[in-house]
Amino acid sequence: MDYTKTIIITTINKKTNAISDFEKLLKGWHIILVGDKKSHHIEDTSSLTYLSLKKQNELGFVLNELLPYNHYVRKNLGYLFALKNGALSIYDTDDDNAPYKEWSFPSFEIKNTLSINGSKYYNVYNNFTDELVWPRGFPLSLISRKQEFSQTIGDHSVGIWQGLADKDPDVDAIHRLVFDKEIVFDKNPPLVLAQGCYCPFNSQNTLWHREMIPYAYLPATVTFRFTDILRGYIAQRCIWEHGKILGFTQATVYQNRNEHDLMKDFNSEIPCYTEIEKVVGILDSLSLKNDFENNLITIYNALFKHNIVKELELDLVNRWIMDLKKVL
C-alpha cells in the first residue's frame, strides 16, 4: 500500500458517506481510520486501513500505553502509523466532513500570495465572508474590535495549510447558539499569516507537511473542544522556528455535522474562551529552536507550570517524542 499521501480520521461511527466520498474522489490518497472502544469495525480496502484497538496495541508505540480510550487524541496513533509507513503529506479531517469534487490544496511553496502582518491575532474568516463569524478559539475580546494589520504579496514556505469548511464551519458553541445559520464561504485566493500573527486552526480540514508533523500532537489532559485548538496555537509558534508559516485556503469540504449537545460543547470550550490569550503570552515568552524535541518539552513544561495542562501531559509528550524518533 502507498501511504505517501495519507488521510487521518478517527471515528466511532459506521463508515460514513464522507469517508466513502474521500475514498472515491481522492485518488492516490490512503485513509487511516483510528478506532476506539465504541467504534464499529470497518473493513480494510486498497485505499483504507482501519486501526482497531487490537492493531493499535500491536504497533509498539509507547504513547499507546498512556493514551486514554474513548478520546479524540487516539488520533495521535494515526499520525505515528502514517509516518512509520512513509507519509510525506498528512491530511487531518473528521468523519462528517465531505470533500468537494474539486478538493485540492495549494503547494507548500507558494508564490505571489497575500500575507497578513502587524497583528497579534487575525480573524481569517473575514477574508472569505462578510458574515459575522470567527473560528473556534479566536479570542472573544477581539471579535468586535477593528483589526489593525498590513498586507504584503510574496513567496512563502507553508508548513501547515488550513482549509475552511462550508455549511457548518468550525465555529464555537456561542456562535451556534446565537446565530444558528449555515455559512458558505467565498472562493477567494489563499493567504498566509506572517510570523508573530496567530489565528486558531483545527483538525477539520488541515494539510501537514511531513517535517511539521511532530507538532500535530493532540494534548490529552485538556477538554475535547480545546485539544486541537491548543495544538494549533502551539504548532503556529513552533513552525516559525523552522522558517515555515501557516496558510489558509478556501473551503474544500462541507460539513454535515454529527449530532452535538451545544451546551456540552460550550462547557468543553470554556478554555478556548478564557485561556487563549494566556497561552499565546506563554508561547511568545519562550525561547525556542529549530528542534521539535526541545520545543515540545519547553512548551508543555511551561503550560503545566501555568495550569493549562496536567502533569500526565509531560509523560505523554515524552512518549510522543520517543515514538517520533522511531518513525522519522
How would you sum up the major sheet? Answer: 10 strands, mixed
Give the helix tally. Answer: 9
Termini distance? Answer: 19 Å
CATH structural fold name = Spore Coat Polysaccharide Biosynthesis Protein SpsA, Chain A
Task: Provide the domain count.
Answer: 1
Query: DSSP strand (E) fraction?
Result: 15-25%
What is the CATH architecture annotation? Alpha-Beta Complex
Q: For the residues shown, what is the average pLDDT? A: 96
Instruction: Give start-end ranges of low-pLDDT stretches.
Output: none
- Write the element-wise H/E pattern from the N-terminal end onward: EHEEHHEEEEHEEHEHHHH
**Helix- and strand-based class?**
alpha/beta
Supply Rg: 18 Å
Can you identify the CATH class?
Answer: Alpha Beta
Oligomeric state of the chains in view: single chain
Written description of the protein model:
The chain is of the alpha/beta class and 328 residues long. The chain has a single domain (5-327), classed as Spore Coat Polysaccharide Biosynthesis Protein SpsA, Chain A (Alpha-Beta Complex), CATH 3.90.550. 30% of the residues lie in helices and 21% in strands. It has nine helices and ten strands. Strands 1, 2, 3, 4, 5, 6, 7, 8, 9 and 10 form a ten-stranded mixed β-sheet that branches. Helix 3 (75-84) runs parallel beside helix 9 and helix 5 (224-239) runs parallel beside helix 6 (262-274). The protein starts with a strand and ends with a helix.
